[in-house]
Amino acid sequence: xxxxxxxxxxxxxxxxxxxxxxxxxxxxxxxxxxxxxxxxxxxxxxxxxxxxxxxxxxxxxxxxxxxxxxxxxxxxxxxxxxxxxxxxxxxxxxxxxxxxxxxxxxxxxxxxxxxxxxxxxxxxxxxxxxxxxxxxxxxxxxxxxxxxxxxxxxxxxxxxxxxxxxxxxxxxxxxxxxxxxxxxxxxxxxxxxxxxxxxxxxxxxxxxxxxxxxxxxxxxxxxxxxxxxxxxxxxxxxxxxxxxxxxxxxxxxxxxxxxxxxxxxxxxxxxxxxxxxxxxxxxxxxxxxxxxxxxxxxxxxxxxxxxxxxxxxxxxxxxxxxxxxxxxxxxxxxxxxx
Length: 338
Hints:
The protein is of the alpha/beta class. 38% of the residues lie in helices and 17% in strands. It has helices at residues 20-28, 45-55, 97-116, 129-134, 142-150, 175-180, 184-200, 226-240, 251-259, 271-282, 317-330; strands at residues 8-12, 38-43, 61-63, 77-81, 121-124, 156-161, 164-168, 207-211, 244-249, 265-268, 287-291, 296-300. A 12-stranded mixed sheet has the order 3-4-2-1-5-12-11-6-7-10-8-9, with helices on both faces. Helix 3 (97-116) packs across helix 5 and helix 7 (184-200) crosses helix 8 (226-240).
């Protein structure tokens, strides 16, 4: 597919019992998305029709058998219909094996098309960890499923919000364990991966800032030793390898500096350090990006929100931004080695 052709973005509708179907329809009803891509939904048409009817949304759907049939017409939502949910018996607003199974199958189908080159990128609505566990998945979440389907060992997660890029040294682990994982070798290894990832996004010789762990970057050892013993030595080694790495910078200022474009990316040391910064800045504008796959994958930065499922209250902005970013990045992304 040529660079001048609008890319096809496959949008998986997520857990059908959550807000995924609602935000998927709402996002594709925004006409501006068709300026930059041809979006298609990968899901169950009966679910999409039911949610649209319940919310009084004026929607026209067109079922297609292959992404290659996508026309990208405003006012027409094109759907790969897996027909894998009984909408009449599906429990809404709760995790179930049925919803978990369906959400996994949407991902599998989208990846199938992406690996065949029939779609250029994938944007995903949220799935639920408990639901996929009930469905028998051996994987804890979206990223792990994608990695297994693509044969990639260690994909890289990047948060994007208003041009700020955040990577994570550790993610889904208890805070006490994350602190123990702040080690020199791990920081060096992760920063090298970040440099490679940014280069695959077209950013040559990136400036990477490493966040401090302790308040005030430990105040020269008065508030903790990790900066002096692990983080600073890692940065010194990286700079000796020719990388443009700075830090450790206090976590209460590093993200502000990133917004001012003083560097290209931030390495956050643990999950909430980066997530709180991104979501406080713009909760519905933050997008999660999985790098290291053979294709670009973007995702909303929120969960299934069972408590408001199918009630018309869900905000589609994060998914809209995810689709938009998937389309843009697919034009510059060169796949990394997993």
